[in-house]
Structures are given as C-alpha cells and as structure tokens.
Write a structure and sequence with these properties.
- The protein contains twelve helices and five strands.
- The protein has 243 residues and is α/β, with parallel strands linked by helices.
- The chain has a five-stranded parallel sheet, sandwiched between helices.
- The longest helix has 15 residues, at 187-201.
Length: 243
C-alpha cells in the first residue's frame, strides 16, 4: 500500500479537499486544519465535488465507505478529468470493490477501520507525529471536545426516541446514508431527523453534536430510563372517595 498523497500544482498553500459527509471526514478536516492545511469538506455528490474542484485543491481525500462502486467511480472520474488523483478510504473486504478503486487510478487506498493516528500517517506522515496516542475518529472528537471550555448545554430529553437512536448512530461514526439504509427509510428522512437533533441541542454540525454528547456523558439508554422515571413521578394517583 502506498503512503501519502501526491501534491499537485506546486502551490505554497496545501489545499486538501475531503469528499464525504460522515464523522470521519469531519474529523479529518478538523485535524488537518489544525495542522495548517487549508481544508474543504464536501458531501459525495457530483455538484458538490465540482464546487470542490473549482477550489483548486492539490490534495484530495475521498471517503467511499457508504457509496456503491458505480457512484464512487463516477466521482473519481470527475476528479481524474480535472487532473486530480484521490486518496480513497474504504472499509470493505470485497476484493472486486477494492480493485475497482485501484483501477480508477487512486493514489492511495486506506482501510477506514484503522486507528485515527494511523490514518493520518498514511495520508501525511508528518501529521501523525503531531497526534498524541492511538485513537479512532470518534475518540478524536472526544479528544477535541475536552479542549473546549464552558458548560455543556443542550436538552437531550427533548429528543424523540427515533432522534435518540439516530444520535447514537452518529456517535458510532455512521453517516446519514448508512443510518437510512439500516432503518429502511429515505435519506431525506434521516437528514430531517439530524436537523432536528442539531436544533434541539443548539449546535450547527454533526461533529459538534457528537462532541457535546460525549462531553455530557449521554447515552440513549440513560435518556430513555430518565424519561420513564420522570413520567412515573408526575403520574397522579387517583383519589378515592369515601364510601
């Protein structure tokens, strides 16, 4: 397996385009921004990728874990026609699928199940030396959230049971597409649920929602149990009339 991305264009500023809407893509964008890269994160849709290409990146990182091979190859083709080769992150053991990415001319193929510091090392070896310890992408969110100051805010009890389930999936690193497939619902339904979660927690991104949730030590089981206890406490006992 190759290591590192080939830098294109000879620009002094390193621009990294990260294609993917999941937590891993967001965590990588945050990490490389902190390391001095100019980063842009776009979802894996053709129109968004075109906007990313217009930004003139010299590094491209593409998370294909939730994409079918056809959609992934279409996007890789758009990048290739623009003179860009992408580093592809997947989590599949399907040799045919992995060979398809290689045949499409990817610069690097990385297993997305690797620890986060190893992912950084494969993409940019010097970056991994600035990353303390071995932690997964979801743990990286916890790590960065601990650096923030201020009280934990947000009302988890206002979340519906379905919204709690979606938030739990986000905490495990699943993207909207994966959540929709597992629940047999449309992607638009899941996106609406995520939007409601962000509004109720008072945050503006999935990454911030997960960071807030981990800081608060919340879990869907605790929230459901707590809701049941409060409901029991509010229950009014019927009064008995004297005979």
């Amino acid at each position: 397996m190759k290591q590192g991305l080939a830098v294109a264009g000879g620009q002094d500023e390193i621009r990294m385009l990260i294609v993917g809407g999941g937590l891993l893509a967001g965590a990588l964008a945050s990490a490389f921004s902190a390391y001095g890269f100019a980063t842009k994160n776009v979802v894996a849709e053709k129109a968004e990728v075109h906007r990313g290409i217009e930004w003139r990146p010299n590094l491209v990182l593409m998370d294909v874990r939730s994409l079918d091979v056809g959609s992934g190859l279409d996007l890789l083709g758009e990048l290739r026609r623009a003179g860009l080769r992408a580093c592809v992150i997947d989590a599949s053991d399907d040799d045919d699928r992995l060979d398809a990415w290689k045949d499409a001319g990817t610069s690097t193929l990385i297993d997305g199940r690797e620890p986060f510091d190893r992912l950084l090392r494969m993409i940019d070896p010097p970056a991994s030396s600035r990353c303390n310890g071995s932690f997964t992408a979801s743990a990286f969110v916890t790590y960065t959230s601990k650096q923030e100051q201020g009280p934990v805010v947000g009302c988890f009890d206002d979340l519906t049971e379905r919204e709690q389930s979606v938030l739990a999936e986000l905490m495990e690193g699943h993207c909207a597409e994966e959540i929709a497939k597992a629940a047999f619902v449309s992607i638009s339904t899941v996106r609406s649920q995520i939007k409601a979660i962000l509004q109720k927690l008072g945050v503006n991104s999935q990454l911030a929602a997960v960071a807030l949730t981990r800081r608060a030590g919340w879990s869907s089981k605790n929230s459901v149990a707590g809701r049941g206890e409060r409901a029991s406490a509010r229950r009014v006992q019927p009064t008995r009339r004297p005979l």
